[in-house]
Design goal:
By secondary structure, this protein is α+β, with helices and mostly antiparallel strands. It has one domain: Gcn5-related N-acetyltransferase (GNAT) (Aminopeptidase, 3-Layer(aba) Sandwich). It is about 20% helix and about 30% strand. The protein has four helices and ten strands, in the order E-H-H-E-E-E-H-E-E-E-E-E-E-H. Strands 1, 2, 3, 4, 5, 6, 7, 8, 9 and 10 form a ten-stranded mixed β-sheet that branches. The N terminus is likely disordered.
């Protein structure tokens, strides 16, 4: 195993991801979550879309080595009572290279993404996960069994962050993949 020296957050650079980063990011996410990560419910939400690069971030050393990444995706929130549909964001995957964890890089990366989201005044932001770091940037759990994921998967691990009260979160709802005609809010034009 390669031993890495401590890399303080001040010795890193944050930037938006680029298309050529994809192979490196996929390898990072495989190391962090395992190669079977695509079978999880949150991945179904990302099908047919691309991350919102202007809100996503990559952390790298000054020499260009990618240390971590956080992607943000467009998704839909559907109220199962009224049928109302809202455009919302899905945070993740989010990972720091396992060899670099414990250096506060994750919190720096997470704060950078939340700052970008807050500057754009978009939200709310959902995630599927249990890491206690999420509470530090305003994510809160939802009522048990209130939000479902595609395929009827229970969303008990779904958290939400809505700093400005953009929409009313339904008491019974589901997150769903976006539809092309609604993606222009996040990308500027309809997705192809």
């Amino acid at each position: 195993m390669t031993k890495h020296r401590q890399t303080p957050a001040s010795a890193t650079a944050l930037r938006c991801p680029e298309a050529e980063d994809t192979p490196v990011l996929e390898a990072l996410f495989d190391r962090a979550f395992g190669p079977d990560r695509h079978s999880k419910g949150a991945y179904r939400l990302r099908e047919g879309s691309s991350p919102i690069l202007s809100l996503s971030r990559v952390m790298q050393t000054q020499g260009g080595e990618i240390l971590g990444a956080a992607l943000v995706w467009p998704v839909l929130l559907r109220c199962l009572i009224s049928g109302a549909i809202n455009d919302v964001l899905l945070f993740g995957p989010f990972a720091v290279d396992p060899a670099r964890q414990g250096q506060r890089l994750g919190l720096t990366l997470l704060n950078a993404v939340m700052d970008a989201i807050d500057r754009q005044s978009v939200g709310p932001v959902f995630l599927v996960g249990d890491n206690p770091i999420y509470k530090r940037v305003g994510f809160a759990p939802l009522a048990p069994r209130s939000i479902m994921l595609p395929g009827g998967i229970d969303g008990d691990r779904v958290k939400v962050r809505d700093q400005r009260g953009h929409i009313r979160i339904p008491s019974i709802g589901e997150l769903a993949p976006p539809v092309p005609e609604r993606m222009n809010r996040f990308y500027g034009t309809a997705a192809e």
